[in-house]
Design brief:
- The chain is mainly α.
- The protein is 64% helix and 2% strand.
- Helix 1 (2-62) runs antiparallel to helix 2 (74-93), helix 4 runs parallel beside helix 11 (292-315) and helix 5 (127-145) packs antiparallel against helix 11 (292-315).
Length: 398
């Protein structure tokens, strides 16, 4: 009886052991997700602070008589240091959490820039701006809560296996064809729509984040004692990461010369995030084993974050460059010149700049009095110079 009961007793003890192992694996995966998400949020927050510090440095120099260049100020160098620190945090986050979770968290940078702009640069906000920021925060919360939990050691063997898998090869074929078509229309046909340029940026960016995760994961494993730097795939990924990042920055710079930065930020975030999540799901199989509820809630979080970022950037008005001019209504005897809606100075938004004072280094030209055209009329055999203005005679009717 004891021999017969012992196998039953062993069978009854096995399920709790397996459940304990699976629970520890799940809790560990959530812990890695949390570490990666916190690193990404910290990195994007620090980058936003750095950019606003550098912007504050430029504004302060422009509003003062300080002849120093911007790179000679302590504020600008502090911003550069914080930017490098933030980028290091974002880079490290790819080694812990799935790519599809880290990429959408760049919305934190837009949210932080909007909030910090109120504190440092005294930007004005409207109630709809708070609603937009709230939507972006809710979307970020849904992304972190329902993000994928797939974790894999970024060893050289695993990365090589993913690189030659047929889903990724098919994805690469489609991406190369689309990229070449867009590049042809952009360069040869002069099709410079913002969607075309930012699609080129997003396609290159998807490969950048794929290689960044591989390089970051292999570096972290090497630091932990499992050396991965002797695999050739590490250097292949490193070269691809640098090359795609450089060309991505080049196309982004061309876009900033043609379109408003707020529009580029919103459209670029939506396109880059969508294509990067697709690349991560294809290369690293981020959503394998996830249930339909988590995938749907993650997609909902992406949509809410997209909407929030779009509204935040849309509500920001493009700054009008300062163009100094003489205020005619401030002159003595001219106080009532605008009483009947008469406009003396043109609108700053117009292309016509009559009345504007142009900056000129040649002082002698600035203080040279303006000359009016001289009209000449012939009376008989001699030319009499007319006065440099027209005299209008008004006859008073009785």
């Amino acid at each position: 009886m004891e021999g017969a009961n012992s196998p039953d007793l062993q069978l009854q003890q096995l399920p709790p052991t397996s459940m304990t192992v699976s629970f520890s694996e799940v809790s560990f995966s959530y812990k890695e997700n949390l570490i990666g998400a916190l690193l990404a949020i910290f990195g994007h927050l620090v980058v936003s602070i750095a950019l606003n510090l550098q912007k504050y440095s430029h504004i302060r120099l422009a509003g003062s008589k300080d002849p120093r260049a911007y790179f000679k100020t302590k504020t600008w160098w502090l911003g550069l240091f914080l930017m490098l620190l933030g980028e290091l945090g974002v880079f490290s986050s790819y080694a812990f959490a799935p790519l599809s979770l880290i990429v959408p968290l760049s919305a934190v940078s837009v949210i932080a820039s909007a909030i910090i702009g109120i504190i440092f640069i005294k930007e004005k906000w409207k109630p709809k701006d708070f609603l937009s920021c709230g939507l972006a925060i809710i979307g970020t919360y849904l992304l972190v809560t329902f993000g994928p939990n797939s974790h894999e050691k970024m060893t050289g063997e695993n990365i090589t296996k993913h690189l030659v898998s047929w889903p990724f090869l098919l994805y690469m074929l489609v991406e190369i064809i689309v990229f070449c078509l867009l590049l042809y229309f952009y360069k040869e046909k002069n099709v410079n729509y913002i969607v075309v340029i930012l699609l080129l940026v997003a396609l290159l960016g998807s490969m950048t984040v794929v290689t960044v995760k591989a390089v970051a994961g292999m570096l972290v494993l090497s630091i932990q004692g499992n050396l991965q730097l002797d695999y050739p795939i590490f250097y292949v990924m490193l070269v691809c990461m640098v090359a795609t990042a450089v060309y991505q920055a080049a196309f982004l710079s061309q876009a900033t010369q043609l379109y408003d930065s707020s529009l580029i930020a919103s459209v670029g975030y939506i396109l880059s995030t969508t294509i990067a999540i697709t690349a991560g799901a294809t290369f690293y199989l981020d959503f394998i084993g996830e249930d339909a509820l988590h995938i749907c809630m993650f997609a909902l979080g992406c949509l809410v974050a997209f909407l929030g970022v779009f509204l935040i950037t849309r509500n920001r008005k493009k700054a009008i460059p300062f163009e100094p001019y003489i205020s005619m209504d401030a002159m003595p005897g001219m106080q009532n010149i605008h009483d009947k809606g008469m406009t003396v100075q043109p609108d700053l938004k117009a292309s016509f700049s009559y009345g504007a004072l142009e900056n000129n280094d040649n002082v002698s030209e600035i203080y040279t009095p303006a000359t009016l055209p001289v009209m000449q009329e012939e009376h008989g055999s001699r030319a009499i110079s007319a006065p440099p203005y027209r005299v209008l005679e008004h006859t008073k009717r009785e």
